[in-house]
Each structure stands twice: as structure tokens, then as C-alpha cells.
Q: What sequence folds into this?
């Protein structure tokens, strides 16, 4: 694998490949965060209902 095809830094093709990989991770992370946020909101709502029913 040729990481460097020019002097002085990482080859542009390697930078593009690495960026594509990281964007994929970012998409997965955003999905995970969104799902967890919704789950926490639902749990908070359920807790409020439970507390209200017991008071």
C-alpha cells in the first residue's frame, strides 16, 4: 500500500480514503447518538408518568 506518492505529506488518495472511512464512522456515531437520545427521552417520560401515578 502506497501511503506516500509525493514528498512532504500523505498522498491525496490516502487522505481521501481515510476521510471516507472517518465519515462512515461519523454517520454510525450520529445514528447511535440519536437512538440513545430518543431512548433517554422515552425513559424520562415513563419515569415522570410512574412518579405522577404514585403521588
A:
Amino acid at each position: 500500500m502506497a501511503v506516500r506518492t509525493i514528498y512532504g505529506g500523505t498522498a491525496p488518495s490516502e487522505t481521501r480514503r481515510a476521510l471516507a472511512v472517518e465519515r462512515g464512522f461519523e454517520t454510525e456515531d450520529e445514528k447511535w447518538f440519536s437512538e440513545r437520545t430518543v431512548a433517554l427521552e422515552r425513559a424520562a417520560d415513563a419515569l415522570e408518568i410512574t412518579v405522577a401515578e404514585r403521588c
Observations:
- Residues 12-54 form the longest helix (43 residues).
- The chain has one helix and no strands.
